[in-house]
């Protein structure tokens, strides 16, 4: 039922790019998930870096549309303390790997098969994005597709970097 609700909300979102909003909710919830290749990722291991945590699914059109922009942002900040963790909601490793390979993504695709992490983060709409500062606190959030190549988005992320 929850997956159906997420699907309905994702389809209902406007196709235009959304913007990042300042977050006032404090520290990020725990995140500890395996990626599509079986490696474990823990948000706490990325302390000292800015982390873009994105919740997505292969069936979500806005999710698929924003992924190339996330890859472009990751690539442009490659030498900086920045990482993208894309959390696939409710799907398996095979679907995530197939999408990663087709889209030429070079950031980890984490698997939240039981959707516990998605619920803990309050990602009720897909795509949902959270920018976590080097101190582990969420600084920005965004619901719906974001143009990750936009100058104001990149600038907001760079301002968080040590």
Outline:
With 162 residues, the chain is α/β, with parallel strands linked by helices. It is 33% helix and 23% strand.
* Secondary structure: helix percent: 25-40%
Name the CATH class.
Alpha Beta
Q: In percent, how much strand structure appears in the residues? A: 15-25%
Uncertain parts: 1-15
Number of helices: 5
How do the strands of the widest beta sheet line up side by side? 1-8-7-4-5-6
CATH architectural type: 3-Layer(aba) Sandwich
What fold name goes in the CATH topology slot? Answer: Glutaredoxin
Mean pLDDT: 90
Gross morphology is globular
> Quick one: biggest sheet?
6 strands, mixed
Mind telling me the C-alpha Rg? 14 Å
Descriptive overview:
The structure is a single chain. The protein is an alpha/beta fold and 162 residues long. It has one domain: Glutaredoxin, CATH 3.40.30. The chain has five helices and eight strands. The strands form two sheets. It has a six-stranded mixed beta sheet. The radius of gyration is 14 Å and the shape is globular. The termini are far apart. The N terminus is likely disordered.
Keywords:
23% strand; 8 strands; two-stranded antiparallel sheet; single chain; Glutaredoxin; 162 residues
Topology at a glance:
Elements: H1 2-12, E1 21-22, E2 32-34, E3 40-42, E4 50-56, H2 61-76, E5 82-89, H3 93-103, E6 109-112, H4 116-121, E7 128-132, E8 138-143, H5 151-160
Parallel strand pairs: 4-5, 5-6
Antiparallel strand pairs: 1-8, 2-3, 4-7, 7-8
């Amino acid at each position: 039922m929850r997956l159906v609700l997420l699907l309905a909300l994702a389809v209902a979102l406007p196709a235009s790019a959304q913007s990042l909003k300042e977050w006032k909710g404090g520290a990020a919830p725990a995140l500890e998930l395996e990626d599509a290749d079986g490696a474990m990722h823990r948000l706490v291991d990325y302390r000292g870096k800015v982390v873009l945590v994105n919740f997505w699914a292969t069936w979500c059109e806005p999710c698929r549309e924003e992924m190339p922009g996330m890859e472009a942002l990751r690539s442009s900040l490659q030498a900086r303390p920045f990482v993208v963790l894309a959390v696939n909601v409710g799907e398996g490793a095979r679907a995530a790997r197939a999408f990663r390979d087709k889209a030429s993504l070079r950031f980890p695709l984490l698997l939240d098969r039981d959707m516990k992490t998605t619920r803990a983060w309050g990602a009720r709409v897909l795509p949902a994005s959270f920018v976590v500062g080097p101190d582990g606190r969420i600084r920005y959030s965004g619901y719906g597709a974001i143009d990750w190549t936009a100058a104001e988005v990149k600038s907001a992320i760079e301002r968080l970097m040590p």
